[in-house]
């Protein structure tokens, strides 16, 4: 069969980090790897080229598979609609994060099958059935229109599949992670045992770590053509012994790459010597979720770290000469004094890069119930659920004042914390220009949000 795998274009009105962190569609690369031997298959990344109609006309796929993030629902449905308009015989499949979290959002006249989770087995079973045109029985993880979207109800999660990165060869020079461009991504471990209250990732991947064999990891690293790799494990720094073995293998194989990873404060402070060694083995930056200056909020979020731990982690990274790309969460109960305390806290931590998002109670999270009465978004306003919009009504200041405080914080980060000089020193002037273009787009979005609230 001919299969076209599609990543939808960016949702324009969403405020996301996409301008700074633009990763390969690795889920589609995994599907490609499973199906490539028996089918003719290609990937269309609509974030780079918006050529769906041309592909439908020239490639003439029998199946179009569309991946999704939480904010993509309407975009996926509109792609499905366009596909069926052009050729109603094309089979349309939806999958991705949103399908796992909110399956029924894809129950749509133009979508034939929805993958709640993807495994080698369910991919092969479905495509065998589609090819043979035999009656479609229920398959684990797949909800088909012909079966009224029923499935076997067997619980499952996405299987770890080694992606075929050649499938995105023509796009790869575009993928970047902040100043590292081109940059590949890979996963060396699934799940997370930290179980933070606000986090979707461990709920999607599992409540404890499932580490991939390091030989398999090393083989992938050797195969990756890019000089920079972002490990998108939930907490790459979790296991000291595994990290030491990782460093051994990097040294034995003379691998010289730039690595970026997510790492928890708890892991950084529990094995500082290993963190230093990782720095010598190529670890350039760690994305750390410090979240807040408030001890109470850290406890409420069920973070396993304290404010003091945050300072310790920051010091360890600086001593190891590893950049810290910090992320924070803005609590809806903050007032202007809290924002001021927050700015002082960030100034003391002095991360090289600072990102933030307002606390977002996604419908699948327990905290959704807690904030249900203060929600500013409806569940079906899918595009609005981007991490940067205020979704909970602030309790102590007005919404427009809250947006004003966010704007003040953005200016504080850019003008006072010298992010610009870090960018130039680390990545050069052209990267600063590229990133600044993204920031410039974000600033008016917040100004617009603030003014909209004032008018209403
Ligand atoms: S450490 Fe990170 S990935 Fe793990 S549960 Fe907490 S926020 Fe989620």
Automatic annotation (TrEMBL):
Lineage, uppermost ranks: Bacteria, Bacillati, Bacillota, Clostridia, Eubacteriales
Assigned keywords, A-Z: Iron, Iron-sulfur, Metal-binding, Methyltransferase, S-adenosyl-L-methionine, Transferase
Cofactor: [4Fe-4S] cluster
Domain Radical SAM core as annotated: residue spans: 178-398
GO cellular component: cytosol
One Gene Ontology molecular-function label: catalytic activity
Name the UniProt record assigns to this protein: Radical SAM superfamily protein
Source species, domain of life: Bacteria
């Amino acid at each position: 069969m001919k299969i076209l795998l599609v990543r939808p274009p960016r949702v324009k009105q969403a405020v996301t980090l996409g301008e700074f962190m633009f990763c390969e569609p690795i889920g589609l690369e995994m599907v490609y790897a499973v199906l490539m031997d028996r089918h003719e298959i290609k990937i269309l990344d609509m974030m780079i080229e918006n050529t769906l109609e041309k592909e439908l006309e020239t490639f003439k796929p029998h199946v179009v598979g569309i991946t999704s993030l939480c904010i993509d629902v309407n975009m996926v449905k509109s792609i499905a609609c366009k596909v069926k308009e052009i050729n109603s015989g094309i089979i349309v499949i939806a999958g991705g994060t949103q399908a796992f979290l909110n399956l029924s959002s894809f129950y749509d006249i133009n979508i034939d099958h929805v993958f709640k989770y993807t495994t080698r087995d369910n991919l092969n079973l479905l495509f065998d059935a589609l090819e043979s045109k035999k009656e479609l029985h229920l398959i684990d993880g797949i909800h088909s229109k012909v079966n009224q979207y029923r499935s076997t109800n067997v619980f499952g999660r996405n299987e770890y599949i080694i992606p075929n990165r050649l499938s995105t060869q023509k796009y790869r020079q575009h993928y970047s992670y902040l100043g590292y461009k081109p940059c590949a991504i890979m996963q060396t471990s699934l799940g997370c045992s930290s179980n933070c209250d606000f986090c979707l990732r461990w709920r999607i991947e599992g409540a404890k770590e499932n580490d991939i064999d390091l030989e398999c990891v090393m083989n992938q690293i050797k195969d990756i053509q890019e000089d920079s790799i972002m490990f998108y494990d939930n907490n790459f720094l979790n296991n000291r012994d595994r990290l030491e073995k990782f460093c051994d293998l990097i040294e034995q194989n003379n691998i010289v790459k730039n690595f970026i990873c997510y790492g928890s404060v708890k892991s950084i402070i529990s094995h500082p010597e290993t963190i230093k060694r990782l720095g010598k083995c190529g670890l350039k930056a760690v994305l750390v979720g410090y979240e807040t200056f408030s001890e109470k909020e850290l406890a409420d979020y069920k973070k396993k770290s304290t404010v003091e731990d945050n300072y310790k982690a920051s010091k360890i990274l600086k001593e190891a000469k590893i950049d810290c790309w910090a992320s924070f969460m803005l609590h809806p109960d903050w007032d202007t004094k809290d924002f001021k305390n927050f700015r002082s806290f960030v100034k003391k931590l002095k991360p090289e890069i600072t990102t933030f998002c307002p606390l977002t109670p996604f419908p699948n999270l327990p905290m959704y119930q807690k904030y249900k009465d203060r929600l500013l978004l409806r569940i079906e306003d899918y595009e609005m659920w981007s991490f940067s919009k205020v979704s909970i009504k602030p309790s102590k200041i007005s919404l427009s004042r809250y947006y004003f405080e966010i704007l003040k914080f953005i200016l504080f980060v850019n003008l006072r914390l010298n992010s610009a000089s870090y960018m130039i020193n680390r990545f050069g002037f052209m990267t600063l220009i590229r990133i600044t273009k993204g920031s410039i787009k974000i600033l008016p979005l917040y100004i617009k949000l603030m003014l909209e609230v004032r008018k209403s």
